Amino acid sequence: xxxxxxxxxxxxxxxxxxxxxxxxxxxxxxxxxxxxxxxxxxxxxxxxxxxxxxxxxxxxxxxxxxxxxxxxxxxxxxxxxxxxxxxxxxxxxxxxxxxxxxxxxxxxxxxxxxxxxxxxxxxxxxxxxxxxxxxxxxxxxxxxxxxxxxxxxxxxxxxxxxxxxxxxxxxxxxxxxxxx
Length: 180
Fold this sequence. Notes:
Elements: E1 2-5, E2 12-20, E3 25-32, E4 38-41, E5 44-47, E6 51-59, E7 74-82, E8 104-114, H1 125-144, H2 156-179
Parallel strand pairs: 1-8
Antiparallel strand pairs: 2-6, 3-5, 3-7, 4-6, 7-8
């Protein structure tokens, strides 16, 4: 899951931290169900063996909150093992099809909106910001740790789904804390 602490009239960004713990080159492509709402940079690339790669996902400023803070937007992260002579400019959609002969893995990430923290008194303003960003940082930590997401193609989906499940609990805990 990708969590955005929804603040109206503001662009909000988060990073997807990709880690390749294999000895192979991994090509990736990130797609979304709402391309006008999100900017993904870069939306494709190559993660060298035993290295990391950050992808910045930016949600355009929203004028109003959706009913019940529900979001149907999703991201699809596709990955495939490629040869080291492939350049990022050579990445195309055909590389991520079964017909390509590549071992392709796909992971779907649901977008979740977390409410901003409640308004507080002037003395508590700094706590509000750190509490408001806690959910996002906690979720990012869960998804970004190499132990949680190895980028070997065979186990990537399982590891991300486990991390998403744990992160979802963190967000729900945060939301119920904010309601109190």
